[in-house]
Design brief:
The structure holds three protein chains of three kinds.
Chain A (H helix, E strand, L loop, with lengths): L19 H23 L5 H25 L3 H36 L2 H5 L17 H31 L5 H12 L3 H13 L8 H26 L2 H9 L4 H29 L3 H6 L18 H11 L2 H28 L13
Chain B lengths: L20 H39 L1 H6 L3 E2 L4 E2 L2 H32 L2 H14 L4 H27 L16 H25 L3 H9 L4 H30 L2 H6 L20 H8 L5 H31 L7
Antiparallel strand pairs in B: 1-2
Chain C lengths: L10 E10 L2 E11 L4 E5 L6 H7 L10 E9 L2 E2 L7 H7 E4 L11 H11 L8 H10 L3 H4 L12 H13 L5 E5 L7 H14 L4 E5 L3 H7 L2 E6 L7 E7 H6 L4 H7 L5
Parallel strand pairs in C: 3-8, 3-9, 6-7, 7-8
Antiparallel strand pairs in C: 1-2, 1-4, 4-5, 9-10
Helix pairs in contact in C: 3-6, 4-6, 6-7
Classes of the chains: A mainly alpha, B mainly alpha, C alpha/beta.
Chain lengths: ~350, ~325, ~260
């Protein structure tokens, strides 16, 4: 018997063989409702949402349902309905979301220009065109405020993650509950807390460091949780190996566990930062947005990208809105970079061979 | 003569105690960090509680939480319409978001080819990262006009239902529009969680269903959904928590009315949200008003705490069969 | 004049060839599975037995990059014909998997009737059917007082018998079993083998097994699969179990059944 492998023939999938008739049916069933709907919209001028919900959807359900019935009998109809509804609902919301993204890029790019990135708004009035001013001061403000917040939160969060994974303390369950509660803290309440504790009481004026402070409880649960998960992924055998060789817990951690979890911890930090870089409410209550550039976190107002957006939306003029979109795009690019970095760092790596010096 | 000992061996407590000084420092520092979050949150709670207490006393807890009217001149503060408004907008948002989010997750896991699914997953995860202030900006400048038009059409067709009635001339700044904006905001989150749950369903169960003659729809309804139910609920409650705490986006698109409840007229231009109340009033708040705002913050915090706890409970409890 | 008697071949595979992507994994398999008999498929790991069994109830096509040539006939009709609905095939040809997979959110009773609900045959649901299916799967005495308890509260062997009951409730003509006892202890294995022997009175059974003693205990006929390196799997020999194990025609069969290679 000839046992050599035979090349796969062209028609190796009998289950996908459809008669020309059924294929034609499916195409027609999809196209006809679309054409009718397009006609209703373009020719008769019916409002698009009415067309989509009351003409396109019912027609698709009927036509695809009929095809399902013809191809698979009674059992084909529910399948057809499921497919149509899933695609319809999914597409509907994706259109809305894409509208957000589209506006972001469309309106945002129109506002972007080199000077937009580095200039501030000291000599700009709300109705000035976009040739003047920019978000330079807001970018710096965001970097400073979020930077300070990160400096405070990262050691705390990573150490908390370590505490939850590496020690066997009895307080761990309690701390987890507390972190869970902190994760539910509404961002405005965090800002309100700082506002009432330090501003109303007169301890400080609006200042950058207060905003950084308000962001800490919003960042901490994320950093701590992701660190904990990253450390949990390190196999216990690795730690045991180090301990078995006589290393102390602290040495085992720093020389074995932490390097193994390095990318996870970095991801934790990046995700924490990405979470708060777009937070608006806490900053609105603690940091006074100004038009100029202020590098002093301890006093004076400071513009940040989210509060910048807020302020110009509140102004309402066309130019102000245009400016807000520009700032929104810059903010989104920043978030995108952070997320991209986080994904890049946490991608599965091939094992690199290290040269051994003999 | 055999001597039987009646004493069972004494059990020794095995504790991992830091031995060297460096270890003690190591454990000490991490414990300190762990407890610092405890301290932090306790500080916040105490401070909020202490500052908010006078308001609860003066206004009366029940009157504050469920009454109407906010006036700094009369020193009378109530968040009833705001509390209800937060719930109403969140409910509208979540009920619209859930079917759409599950559809996206189902499409990615069970309908799309591998390549399309991969791209869609990354895209949805990125959408979940869009800051809410940007969605608020879109909601105000791009969507409001469209949403008002939809409201108008719903009203002209179904206006006899009280829920869709409209006495005012405008369909802008309504709970409906706020609800849609919230829905857009939380769909990516719910969808990501649901997709994750779907991907972890044991493939053997799906195979068993198909081997028994199940079609796509019955497999989805009778196998996929029941097995994912608690996880999806967790995701939905996560979205709900975010919806309740949302400040800026709602502030942009909703008209806040403090003096009366807008119970069900989602197409009327008026509603409430606690977070937006705080944002709106903090700037010129006098002392008693600050206390009232803090009290409102406490109520909101308690609300989100309850929801998060329920979510954690549901997710942890009913999953003996999930191989996590 | 010779009278030629023809066996009725209930289920028949003709010239089955299987590819995954461009890789040819099964070549020219021709097997007949008569009514009321148990057929065992034996052979070393990886030679395509499980793949082959999946072509018999159209589960093979669910695997990405799957390819197939040849035909599978049930009562003379090719199940891969364009006009055939795959889920109808699965009503006639049931399957029990290697790892017991009862539906976790359902009770025992609900699991037994789950196939009827999933395939839209609700009118056939009845308590009698539940009892009957569990009895045929040798599960009734253990399950009758616990019908509404979760299916996962059963042991592994019991869960597998529940899966058999679930397939039986569909009243199939053939049941395919892919190493049904490999995840179970010897006691449960024995119970299931007894069940198989009882079931063959009313249906055909095709069982993939690594356990040669099991094949000798339950199967009327046996097919021996083999695959050489980088070559597609194929059937070396097919015949009465007694003959395969005691007087194999092929030297390779002889080597395998005598344990000369795994």
């Amino acid at each position: 018997m000839n046992l050599e492998p035979v090349a796969r023939p062209k028609s190796a999938e009998p289950w996908s063989r459809t008669t020309t008739q059924s294929r034609l049916l499916q195409v027609v069933a999809s196209l006809v409702p679309i054409l009718i709907s397009a006609a209703a919209w373009l020719v008769l001028g019916v409002d698009p949402i009415v067309v989509v919900v009351f003409i396109l959807l019912p027609l698709l359900l009927i036509s695809i349902g009929t095809v399902g019935f013809l191809l698979k009998g009674k059992r084909g109809v529910p399948d057809a309905i499921l497919i149509v509804m899933t695609l319809f609902l999914g597409t509907f919301v994706m259109v809305l979301l894409l509208s957000v993204v589209w506006s972001l890029f469309d309106a945002g790019f129109r506002a972007l220009s080199p000077h937009f990135i580095y200039q501030n708004n000291v000599y700009v009035t709300p109705t000035d065109g976009l040739e003047f001013g920019g978000v330079g001061h807001a970018i710096i403000g965001t970097l400073l405020v979020v930077g300070l917040s990160t400096i405070i939160t990262v050691p705390l969060g990573v150490a908390t993650g370590v505490y939850l994974t590496e020690t066997r303390s009895n307080g761990r369950g309690f701390v987890r509950v507390v972190l869970q509660a902190m994760a539910g803290l509404p961002s405005i309440v965090a800002g309100l807390f700082v506002y009432s504790m330090l501003i109303v009481t007169g301890v400080s004026q609006y200042a950058g460091w207060l905003g950084a402070f308000a962001l800490v409880p919003l960042m901490l649960p994320t950093v701590s949780r992701v660190t904990e998960e990253a450390l949990k992924l390190v196999p216990q055998e690795l730690r045991n190996g180090a301990l078995g060789l006589g290393a102390s817990s602290w040495k085992a951690f720093f020389q074995v566990t932490l390097p193994a979890a390095k990318s996870g911890v970095v991801t934790a930090i990046l995700l924490g930062v990405a979470r708060v870089v777009g937070e608006t409410a806490p900053l609105l209550l603690t940091v006074f947005p100004i038009a100029g550039t202020n590098l002093n976190l301890l006093e004076g107002g400071m513009a940040t990208l989210p509060t910048y957006i807020y302020r110009f939306v509140a102004l309402g003029f066309d130019t102000a809105i245009a400016r807000a979109w520009g700032a929104a795009l810059v903010l989104m690019i920043l978030v995108g970079i952070l997320f991209g970095l986080a994904r890049y760092i946490s991608r599965p790596k091939s094992i690199k061979k290290k040269k051994v010096n003999r | 003569m055999a001597e039987t000992s009646s004493l069972a061996p004494v059990k020794r407590a095995l504790r991992v105690k830091p031995a060297t000084r460096e270890d003690r420092i190591f454990f000490g520092v991490s414990a300190a960090a762990g407890y610092s979050s405890l301290v932090f949150i306790v500080l916040i709670l105490i401070f909020l509680g202490v500052q908010a207490w006078p308001t609860f006393v003066e206004q009366g807890v029940f009157e504050f939480v469920f009454g109407t009217g906010w006036s700094s001149t009369d020193v009378q503060y109530s968040i009833g319409p705001m509390l209800w408004g937060s719930v109403l907008v969140a409910v509208i948002g979540v009920s619209m978001a859930v079917p759409m989010a599950i559809s996206i997750a189902y499409f990615i896991e069970f309908m799309a080819t591998k390549r399309v699914a991969g791209i869609a997953t990354v895209f949805v995860d990125l959408l979940a990262a869009i800051p809410s202030v940007i969605i608020g900006l879109w909601g105000l400048t791009i969507f409001s006009a469209v949403g008002a038009q939809w409201g108008q059409m719903i009203n002209s067709a179904l206006g006899f239902f009280p829920i869709f009635s409209n006495e005012a001339d405008s369909f802008l700044r309504t709970p409906f529009i706020a609800g849609v904006v919230i829905a857009v905001m939380i769909v990516p989150i719910i969808s990501s969680v649901t997709r994750e749950i779907f991907s972890q369903i044991d493939g053997e169960l799906i195979k068993a269903s198909i081997a028994l003659g199940g079609n796509r729809e019955s497999t989805f309804r009778k196998i996929i959904l029941p097995v994912s139910a608690s996880g999806i609920t967790g995701g939905v409650l996560l979205g709900l928590g975010r919806a309740l705490g949302e400040t800026v986006a709602i502030f942009f698109v909703l008209n806040l009315i403090y003096d009366e409840f807008n119970w069900f007229n989602i197409l009327e231009p008026g509603g409430g949200a606690i977070a937006s109340l705080i944002l709106g009033k903090f700037g010129e708040a006098i002392q008693s008003e600050v206390s009232a705002l803090l009290a409102a913050g406490v109520v909101l915090f308690i609300l989100t705490l309850i929801i998060n706890s329920i979510a954690a409970f549901i997710v942890s409890k009913a999953q003996p069969w999930n191989n996590r | 004049m010779n009278k030629v008697s023809l066996d009725t071949f209930h289920l028949e595979a003709r010239d089955i060839n299987v590819w995954f992507g461009d890789r040819h994994v099964l070549k020219d398999v021709n097997l007949q599975f008569p009514s009321n008999q148990v057929t065992a498929l034996i052979g070393p790991s990886g030679c395509g037995k499980s793949t082959f069994i999946r072509t018999l109830n159209r589960m093979h096509e669910l695997i990405p990059t799957a390819g197939l040539a040849g035909s599978v006939l049930i009562d003379g009709q090719d199940i891969y014909d364009e006009s055939v609905d795959p889920s109808q095939v699965r009503l006639k040809v049931g399957m029990v998997f290697q790892k017991p997979n009862p539906f976790p959110t359902m009770s025992i009773r609900e699991n037994v009737i789950s196939g009827l609900k999933l395939s839209g045959r609700k009118s056939q649901i009845s308590d009698d059917l539940v009892e009957d299916s569990l009895k045929r799967a040798s599960m009734w005495s253990e399950a009758k007082d616990r019908l509404d308890e979760p299916a996962l509260s059963l042991s592994g062997g019991q869960q597998q018998r529940l899966c058999i009951a679930r397939s039986l409730a569909m009243n199939p003509e053939v049941i395919l079993m892919d190493e049904p006892c490999s995840a179970l202890d010897p006691g449960s294995t024995r119970r299931i083998e007894e069940t198989i022997l009882e079931l063959k009175e009313t249906m055909s059974i095709v069982i993939v097994t690594h356990n040669m003693q099991q094949a000798q205990r339950v199967a009327d006929k046996t097919a021996f699969f083999l695959a050489d390196d980088n070559q597609p799997g194929y059937v070396v020999e097919f015949g009465d179990t007694q003959q395969i194990f005691n007087q194999p025609e092929d030297a390779r069969t002889n080597d395998y059944v005598n344990g000369h290679f795994g």
